[in-house]
């Protein structure tokens, strides 16, 4: 069924597909669909609930080559693909046999989201947020960001013909700042870390009623975009759920939604329900969820980030407690890796599979390696690694470690000598 919901001002109906209401994560309190992100009943985050119709694989497979092939599983209008957007998704799933051999495991798949329009998975979540924001009547697309989200919001707003307001820490990687600025929206560098930027965005969202902060006031809809990673992985594996998956942790939302996506595929009969072990990856310089997991805690203590993996540098992750629940429920684990291990992970993936990942990808690969070495990941089980951003965005992380093997004269003798031939 398609839900037509009356907007807050009581004058407009909006179409959010099969989404029917918002539900609080803690106690399950229900409330109408609206641009709200915290339950007034138990003050926990809200997420979208659905009334799914009968879904068929063949209908999805006949859909567009973008996340909109899964629109019936998302809180978006029934005609979402008709509006200008960046059409993200349908990125490649690569069987990484060289990496598997290097790590001593049977089979690894790389979900390579560097192929999205702004070269990270954030294009997925922003596309869904923009679709919902349009229905709610917002006029400006905005966000606080550690980098990739800034790129995605600026690009999506430009494509849609909207104004954008993007807030980033002033210490953000230069490449990500330039990639956001080129779209000519309102990019503001803030003197503070991401948690300072996020607090500022929350305050601004309360002052500007026509600004849709994708990860604040429309966060329940935005976060649903991460489910499309699970949908694509399952479809690309021949409509089945992998046995193990390693997911990088920033706010923790991606991991929770990937798990939700796999569950919804089973609930709708698109796949045979089967268990999946969920593993989380963090950088040691910002590892509050990993620390809580290792110490057997249910509460995540905030930290001040100090890591080269800036896209994961969220010291107070909103979904941290829910990540802990899912990882423990699925018999997974959470691990963290040092900056040197992150660099090594980037180079390992590039050397074995020809994929240049940003620092978050280095965290994922290095964490998978560590989990394999300490016996947490089953080496005989099929494992998927999520690579969520392009290495061209974080060149500074490896620029001092790589370069030409030698500088030679333009002669064959010089080349042979440099190569030891």
UniProtKB/TrEMBL annotation:
<protein>
    <recommendedName>
        <fullName>Threonine synthase</fullName>
        <ecNumber>4.2.3.1</ecNumber>
    </recommendedName>
</protein>
<dbReference type="InterPro" id="IPR050147">
    <property type="entry name" value="Ser/Thr_Dehydratase"/>
</dbReference>
<feature type="domain" description="Tryptophan synthase beta chain-like PALP">
    <location>
        <begin position="88"/>
        <end position="389"/>
    </location>
</feature>
<dbReference type="InterPro" id="IPR036052">
    <property type="entry name" value="TrpB-like_PALP_sf"/>
</dbReference>
<dbReference type="InterPro" id="IPR001926">
    <property type="entry name" value="TrpB-like_PALP"/>
</dbReference>
<comment type="similarity">
    <text>Belongs to the threonine synthase family.</text>
</comment>
<dbReference type="GO" id="GO:0004795">
    <property type="term" value="F:threonine synthase activity"/>
</dbReference>
<keyword id="KW-0663">Pyridoxal phosphate</keyword>
<dbReference type="Pfam" id="PF00291">
    <property type="entry name" value="PALP"/>
</dbReference>
<dbReference type="InterPro" id="IPR004450">
    <property type="entry name" value="Thr_synthase-like"/>
</dbReference>
<keyword id="KW-0456">Lyase</keyword>
